[in-house]
Predict the 3D structure of the following.
Amino acid sequence: MLSPIIVGIDGSAHAWRALDWAADYAVRHRLPLRLVHGSRALVADGTIPDDALRRLIAEREDLLAEARQYALKLHPGLDVETRLVTKDPGRALVAESAEAELVAVGSRGLGGFEGLLFGSVGLYTAAHALCPIMVVSRSAPHPADAPAEIVIGIEGRPEERAFVEWAVEEASSRGARVLALHAVGGEFGSPHRRVIEDMELSEALAGIGERYPDVPVDQLVSDRAPSHALVEASKNAALVVVGARRGRGLPGMALGRVNHAILHHAHCPAVVVPTHE
């Protein structure tokens, strides 16, 4: 059974833009698309009168059906299913991520405890998802209009291999080039340190050229702060890809300041790929 691409649907413009990117990814990778709407308000616990609950469920089902028709209009023949979940949105998306290839969310939603409001639901999903998560802002271009470049933020840790491979494979599927960016956050101080940083970046990319000969890879070592360098590079990218460590026994990923900055300020969709220590 093929792993689905999950996209959170809440009716906001940001969620629709996330749907554009999720559907594009599903088509290129020949995977099914699953549209998910989660809400605790749908629980039949007597809080809402039965008639009102039925209307609310019908309203949310119509929302999902509209999103499904939109995806099929863009990509006829795409395998699209919908799922209404009686959980809060963040927990619903994290649960779906256990069997997913990718989860896509909008960076902002309708607001309130039910919306895909980044900083609450979006941030929870980014920190706890069990697969790569793509965060798409409303200002992100349509996938077909995105620049043919993917930016990878590299620190030089051994566990980064997983998200480097993910990003280069995605570049191959898009016919894009890769910019591998290693930002050290300060002046190099000496030519010797610059040589060391260049070597670390090259080591992080070892073997990539042989496995993906169709993907041009540019390497850049920057003395800028990582968050500033990556946000700036995202202006000319289709995606900016970063990793987040999932340590043993930890309930979620350690996003860190750089990843928070990327998720909030990138000019293109940002992808966080879980890595393991």
